[in-house]
Amino acid sequence: MSSAVIQAFGLAVCTLCAVAEFAYAGDAVLNSNACTLSIDGKTFLLHGKYQVVESFPDFKVEIVTSFSDLKVQKVSSFPSECGKWQEVGSFPDFKVQFVSSFPDLKIAFVESFPGMQ
Q1: H helices within the chain, ranges in order?
Q2: Which of 36, 97, 98, 107 is surrounded by the most beta carbons within 10 Å?
Q3: Global pTM?
C-alpha cells in the first residue's frame, strides 16, 4: 500500500471520530460528550431550567418520537444531569420555542434514561 493511501485512510478515520463527537443541526453544533448545544458562538448546557417562549428563543426545538438528538425528562427539581429539564416561568437557564420545522434541536420526552444515547 502506498503511503498516500495510508494517509488518506487515517484522515478518513479521524474525520469519522470527529463526526461521532459532534452532530450538526443547521447552524447549531451539538456536542454529545459535554451535553451542550452551541449556536452563534453561545453554548448552552442541555440540562437545567427552561422557559417556553413564542419569540426570541435561545434555540428552537422540535418534539419527535424517534431519531431525536436528545431525550428529555421533565423534572420538578434538580435538573442537574444531561437531558433533565425543569420548566419555569422566570429566570430560566435557556429559552426554547417549540417548532414543527427547521429546529436547532430535536427532542423526545421520556420518563426515564434522559440524555444522548
Answers
A1: 3-21
A2: 107
A3: 0.77
